[in-house]
Amino acid sequence: MYSENITFTNFENSEIAFRGQSNNSLRQSCLLFKVMNNRTLVKTGKYLVNFAFAIHFPVEGILRKTIYKHFVGGTSIDDCVKTIEKLASRNVGTILDFAVEGEEREDLFDATCDEIIRTVEIAHKNSNVPFSAFKITGIARFDLLAKVSESHSITDEEGDEFRRVEERVDSIFRRGCELGVPILIDAEETWIQPVLDDIVMKMMVKYNKDKAIVQNTYQMYRHDSMERIKQHHRQALEKGFKFGLKIVRGAYMEKERERALVKGYPSPIQPDKPATDHDFDAIIRYFMDHLDTIDFMVATHNEESSLLLARLIDEYKLPRNHQGIYFSQLYGMSDHITFNLAEQGYNVVKYVPYGEVKTMMPYLFRRAEENSSVKGQSSRELKLIQREVRRRKKK
């Protein structure tokens, strides 16, 4: 068992990282990451999968047994129960994420809202599910959010549509407040983030009096994120509510740069990765200095940032399971970080998306592209898996 007197130093223990995987499962993971390590294969695969769905070719079975199985908890909440229990057996919590996005119809938005509320109710009943989470683009039309964010005039019909969006968001957080379940709302593209920030800050004023129920997400690859966080924190102090948030490095960098170039405005993205890393680590130190008024989650696959927070928790002589501090990684990624932290007694959760295979494809394409990028991490994941395979062969 861990000792809080011993400073945690690395994520090198592959036996802890992959303890929950059989030899066969490890070999399948190895093959998957080998494929994702090839950018050409990933791009070709994306095209072929989209084409297969377009012509109704039965490709779901193949996907379900490979990339879907690795990165997705299941098709439904009930389908995720085994995943929740498996993670809990390793002292890792689950965030159920109904990963629907990009819809256009009001009835689908209402259905998604109802499903998100179900995840809140599950979190209330199951201590192994400490948070709920959702994307506003799962319950609202993207173009409407962009129009409101950019202060364009909207029609009466669009005004009614936007009020329904606000009502959905309010119903989710209201249920979280009733049940005492913190809810994370994901970050979005910069051109729809203003309306999201505005809604979320209003929800914090309403529901965060006693506990950080409403928690925003900030992408630190934006050069303005540090100041936005501090500004929002100041608002929390002035208005007397608890500030809750999650930080990530970010997921839309290429899209953001391309749009800025096409539309002729300054890129909102940091000049380089070191600048992002600097702000990411600096804001962690800021959180630690204001822990009495901030609950936060550091969602990262970066080893250095994870170690920084782990060491600061020990340096501040805080309990490793401090209720206001969480680490997080995506299901199927960075298990060496997740399980080594959990083994040492820190609070760790996995984001576990769920949904039908076809519905999950935008999410899965992002994971594949992220892992195949030049500075992505499929090479690192692959090396760690191969190291564990070699270790087991020597036994």
Question: What attributes does this structure have?
Answer:
single chain; about 400 residues; alpha/beta; eight-stranded parallel beta barrel; 17 helices; about 55% helix; globular
Short description:
The protein has helices at about 15, 25-35, 40-55, 60-65, 65-70, 80-90, 105-125, 140-150, 155-180, 195-205, 225-240, 255-265, 275-290, 305-315, 335-345, 355-370, 380-395; strands at about 95-100, 130-135, 185, 215-220, 245-250, 295-300, 325-330, 350-355. With about 400 residues, it is an alpha/beta fold. An eight-stranded parallel barrel has the order 1-2-3-4-5-6-7-8, surrounded by seven helices.
Total helical segments? 17
Distance between the termini: 23 Å
pLDDT averaged residue by residue: 92
Number of strands: 8
Bin the helical content.
Answer: 55-70%
What is the general shape? Answer: globular
Please give a structural write-up.
The chain has 395 residues and is of the alpha/beta class. It is built from 17 helices and eight strands. The chain has helices at 14-17, 23-36, 39-54, 60-65, 67-71, 81-88, 106-125, 142-149, 156-179, 193-207, 225-239, 253-263, 273-289, 303-315, 335-343, 357-372, 378-394; strands spanning 93-98, 131-134, 183-185, 214-219, 243-248, 294-299, 325-330, 348-354. The radius of gyration is 21 Å and the shape is globular.
